Each structure stands twice: as C-alpha cells, then as structure tokens.
Batch of 3 targets.
Target 1
Amino acid sequence: MWEFDEAVEVRSGVVDGIETPEQFLWRGRLWRVCAVEAQWVETAAWWERGVIGSGVGAATATAVAGSSAAVGVLDADWGPQRAVFRVEAGCGRHGRREMFDLAHDPDSGRWQLERVTDR
C-alpha cells in the first residue's frame, strides 16, 4: 500500500442519491472505476478542528463497507467532514486494476487520492 496526498480530477455520478466517482485522472492516466468497495465519512481530527479539552483523541469515521447505501450520519458538532471512497479502478487496454482511496471535500468540491493498493 502506498500513501498519497495528491489532488485528482474526478468525474462522478449519482448512485442511490450519493455522488460516487466513475473515473479519475491521476498522473496523466485515466482510471475507470469498476466497483465502489466501501465508503465512509471522516471528520477532522480534534486538533484540526480547534477544539481543546473535548476528550476526543482521534478522527472519527463511520464505515459503510461494501455498500453504496447512505453514508453514516455524524453529529454536526464534529466539524468538517469528507467522504472517502475505496474503489477498484482499471487503466489501459490490459485491464490492470488497483484499489484507490479517494476523498471528497464537499465544501471545496476537491478530490484527493490518499492510498493505492495493488490487487
């Protein structure tokens, strides 16, 4: 597994009322999403939210593994949220496939590539 923090261009569509990635451009290559393996919502860690003495020691995520159903609901007090999608995507004629974690910030509309895992 490789960790990244790179902006990517994503074309998305709506599945079951949720915006999900369909394809993305990363380092000059077009990757087509074959399957959304999991999706979840992450909130900013307490030290990034500016909350001191809250007793919360780490980022909180609600996982919805293997489902394109509605993402878990978190309290509004938890601060900024972003959706993360673990997708299987293929590139090129030979059908090379890998797993990607793509994060979407709904406030800015930006997408980030966070992880890549070989299949």
Note: Residues 16 and 109 are 19 Å apart (CA to CA).
Target 2
Amino acid sequence: MSEIFQQKDPTFLSIELWQSQNNSLVAGFTTRLGGVSQSPFDTFNLGMHVNDQLQDVLANRNELGKSLRMPLSQWVAAEQIHGNQIHIVDKHDKGKGAQTFDSSIKKTDGLITREPGILCTAFFADCVPLYFFDPITSYIGIAHAGWRGTTNKIGARMVEQMQNLGVNPKNILVAIGPSISQEKYEVDETVINQIDELYRESVSIKHSDTKYLLDLKLLNKQILLDSGIKELNIEMTKHCTYTKQGLFFSHRRDQGKTGRMLGYIGLKQS
C-alpha cells in the first residue's frame, strides 16, 4: 500500500488521495521544517502551549495559512486534554484557538464539521492524529488520540457523532497519521491495563517484566474497525515521529522540550 501522507512541500504532508476526490478539501500534517522558531522548537513549531515565542508561532501559523489558502480567521483549535470529548464546529467557532491559546475550545480533543471556510486543527508530537472524511455528506473531522484518548475510544466517539449527523460509517474514510511507532513506544502495565482485553495481545509486545511496546496506531485501527469503518477505508501512515528527527518533533525523543506539528482538515470556500 502506498503512503497516504505525501510530502509535496517542505512544511507539510498532504492526504493527496482524499484531496483528489474533492477539490475543496485540504488535509495534511505539518513537518518541523521551514519556520522561524528557535531551538528546541526549530523551526516550524505551531503549538502555543510549549513556551515558544508567541510571535514566532504566529508567524509560522500565518505562513501555513497562506500556503493552504486558509487564513487564521478560518482556523479552529481545541484545548486538547487527552480526553474523548468532541465538538461539532460551525461558523461561530471560526478563529477559536488560532491566535491565542486561551480562546481554544475547552476540554476537547475532536472536531467535526462540514461547513466550508473552516480549518479544523489539532497539535501533535507523538500522539496519533485521526482524520475522517465522508465523500457523500462532506462531513470531515480530526481527533487527537494519545494513549488516554485511544483507550477511551475517541475514534469510536468520532464515528458515533458523525453517525448522529446522518453519516453512514461504511462511507467514512479514515487516515491514521504520523505518530510514534511501536518500536519506540515503551509503556508500563498502568497503560496496558487500560486497553480492552479484546485488543491487548494484538497491539502490544512484552518488552521486560513490567514494560511493553505498544502499537498505538494499530489499536486505533482496531477500535475504528469495531465502530463500523470498513478496513478498505482505513489508511495508516508508516511515518514515525520519533525516528524521523529531521522531519518531526517528538515529545518522547526530545524529553518534552520540543515543538508541535499541526494536523488539519478543512473545506475551502468556493
């Protein structure tokens, strides 16, 4: 299977397959390249909550907005608390979290919309980005799935919310984005015990007496399959944020002192 996230620009990778199906759709994941932020946020940091200089983050965000032809006035960002709460975004949310962190949608890790002129965004540095697109109704969404959000089944909740909006799960396309790979994601029994026994064995490898290697991407895929998403409709990237140091920030590799990539999905106004 070919890589779903294609790098056509130094600063971001695009979901070209989806964008070719809908000319209004913009969907992708940024790299750490091409911005103005100083070390350890060098250079294209897009997160405001990591102690980077605010003017540098805004410069980086504005640059991306120009590249995507979706200015900050159309961005929507959530607070991201590693939960499973989801917000249905409408025109009244435009600009929330775009220029100040305090204006982000509170206590939320998933965003869904089908309104044009809105870019749903989420920030990452090892956690799993989940992208959703229904070509029939044009509903789109993005979710931030760290181990807590994953074990609390934010992916399943996104599907459920889209279903409540009239979407047939069998039509939903899902992309599982760049995140930490199993070989680099060591966790303890506290984390493993949060995973449903149904999935535990297939997504983890015992590494020592109390440590395991967890495949967070695969765990999300299993949960999505059990939520009614067709396997044919799930694309999973091979990109690892930890190992590709020149391309991505990694919270674990950089011991917490690092920037954030942006996952984004939106529909341009015609």
Note: The chain has a mean pLDDT of 97.
Target 3
Amino acid sequence: MLRKDIKKALDKLNDEQLQKIADLMDSIEFQSIEVTPSARFWQRATPVERAREFRQWVSQLPKNGSSLPDEAFNRDTIYAE
C-alpha cells in the first residue's frame, strides 16, 4: 500500500522536486553502506595512533621505485617562459 502511495505522489512532482528526492535517496543509500574495520579505526584513533599506522603503511611501500627527476623540484621548471 505504501509503495503505491509513494509512486502516485512521485508522479505529481516536478523535476526540481524529483531531484531533491533523488538526492535524499542517495544520502540514505550512502548512510546504509557498512563501515569497514579500517574506516572505524581512522574514525576513533588518536592522532598518535593514526601517525603510527600511517608510518607502518609507508614502511611497506616498495623502496626501489623511481622518483621524480631533480628538475621536477625546481620552481623554475613549473612556469612557462
């Protein structure tokens, strides 16, 4: 019954009102997404815990990757002449 009433009400709305309904539905859908344990950690962790976790993550990155060339760090190479 409720579904039919909602469909009838939606048929009466203009495009602007329908967009607001669509935005509300997106918001509701986003709120229903399950938060991962990792995300929960970053929400509740202290700054010290976050820094420790970040440093641990960085330490696991490959150390043999190529870096930017020295010219990339020179301000003069950023701007066109």
Note: Residues 15-31 form the longest helix (17 residues).
